[in-house]
What we know:
Number of strands: 4
Oligomer: single chain
Shape: globular
Amino acid sequence: MNNEALSTPTRPGWGQSLYSGAAGVTLLHAVRSHISRDDSDALRSWAAAMVKGPIQAVPEACGLYEGAAAVAYVLSFTHTNTAARALATLDRHLTDVTRHRLGQAHARIDRGALPTLSEYDLISGLTGLGAYHLHRGHKTELHDTLAYLVRLAEPITIDTQPLPGWWTIDSPDLRPSPRWPGGHGNLGLAHGITGPLALLATALRHGHTVPGQMRAITRICDWLDQWRTGTGPHTWWPGLVTRDEHRRGKLQSPGPPRPSWCYGTPGIARAQQLAGLALGDRDRQRQAEQTLAGCLADDRQLAQLTDASLCHGWAGLIQTVSRAAADSLDDELAARLTHLRARLDDHLDHDGLPHGAGLMDGSAGIQLARLTTPVNTALTAPWDRCMLLTG
């Protein structure tokens, strides 16, 4: 990858976007610099693009993938004195951002209202900020976020109908819509309840606990069990549940969704595997691993992948399976990685790299996924904490 895109930012805030902008590409070069000093020039160039403008720290617009948190997350991988000084300043701002957003979320719960997805999700919500604080070792901010997620998992009653506390008023487009009366229940790792589940479980595995945490993990898992469809290796989860489906207790979806990190069975299975590991529940862990293996053996599911990206394509599937395989009770997932990488290579040979350079929707994420191999796992292990895949 060259630096041509540095002169062509596509929108305001492009530099500070971990998802599709300079921040995500800087992360690639930061990881590469640990493997080879030859990448240091590219790292400096992309880091300069990342911090070219004022860093966004407005609470409503600051999540893990945009603004101050995105920049701070990337800087934490650069290990320079300049980065350390910048991180100290950014962390003070992110403490204030987290406190402000937690205050709003608790006030919303006190009112008995339903949340927006951006209140709690991984990409722009409190789960993402919690993942950052876990990554940085900020115990107070992390514990406060975990305590909020415990409250989020408490049931709520709306119009006499009991709903899970994470049921959102939003449509899948992250805003209310008359096409989605009553909102929906989102299962995805990027925007749904498996993001909080993965954070609660990962924090527990690292010894960070708050009252009610194990109960919250169990409650979320029980809800996911309710919507698991099929038997044995042919089980799958939907990406979301409508209000009508929840009322009836039955899905209308004809089959499994695209097997992606963001919304599909792979991301949901990884979060459940992490929950099983955190709770010492080998049955849940084994079931999650078997479901993921069944997904990988189903060509009808794999055929739904139409791009190579980290968010919703082949690279994200491979990264998810790589992390799940490292924790698996057997070698079945690891044995499938060679075939998956060959499928990614075939796709790239046919369609080439994406037009963008970004982390989640472009070539940077694909290259990072290719770096994550058994040979250099120790070097690349932390980078996908922003995806809540590293346990």
